[in-house]
Give the backbone structure.
Amino acid sequence: MFLLWFKSFKTLRPFSNEFIVQFLPLVAFLFFISGAQAVTLELKESVALSKGTLTVGDVAMVSGTGPVDLPAVSLGSTPLPGTASRLMRDAVEQVIAAKYPKEKVVWKNDVVVCRVERTARVLQEEEVQTRLEQELSGIVKGSGTAQVKEINSWSDIKVPDGELEFSFEIAPASMRSSWGAANMKISFKGEAVLARALRFRWSWMRPAWQAKVNLAAGQVLDLKDFEAVTIDVLSQQSQVYIGEELPADACLTRGLVAGRALSANDFKAQTLVRRGSPVVLRYQRGGLTIQLQVLALQDGTRGQVIAAQNTATRKKVLGRVADETTLDYVQ
């Protein structure tokens, strides 16, 4: 029947009365077809998502000739990780109407409620320890290794199912104690998930020098009496001396028992020149060297500038300690 009408329509003279009368039904038919295909939605019965935002495209199949960005229209936040909520079809339609007031929505199925589930996994202490250890390792990089042993009063929690981003703010005092504190923040694809204060126990393994035998106060540090070891410096009662070599020209300020690590307070610079001892004052300039006998007026360690007296003229001079018997003249 449509073909017969179309053949008779082709024979009509354009813009004649007969042409207009038969043209109007064609326009109405095309408008009807166009309106019926505007926006077609098919609501899903249930969805499971890991992300924190919900869109039209998440809960419904979109077809027809509607706006191209309709699937990306936000419907709000998804439930908390590990929980579910119900989304009514009317709520979806209200959001679309507010965004596109002239758009006609046609529902393809009879589903009126969509169950929205936020998938989750359990965040365990081991994962947090690993991430915190990586943070501490970056801080102590080049000066030992860090190991997190435990997190105080940790309880497993549910987080979004996927790769998490961690950030930590380490309290400065943590670098001096085996028990440390940090503020942890966790996000998932830019969404803030969790913020928590942590208290943790950790070790900082660093190279040190340990006495092999019992040593007395005043004894000069000698490599044969020590061995290089790696210890947890945070577990020591005093600040451990850290150095690739033993201090030169140093002596113990107190006794050191075998097996104990050398601390920064266990030694001092060795006194090479004693007050009242005769030494040589050396003056060098270019290829010229002059030496005089002087009397030390102060104790001195290597590199220290002390006063001395010319034994012939009794004139006071300054000299820098070079060794046990020599001072270099200082103008």
Q: What stands out?
A: Confidence is low (pLDDT under 50) at residues 30-36. Helices lie at 2-10, 17-36, 56-59, 89-99, 125-139. Residues 2-36 form one domain. The longest strand covers residues 191-211.
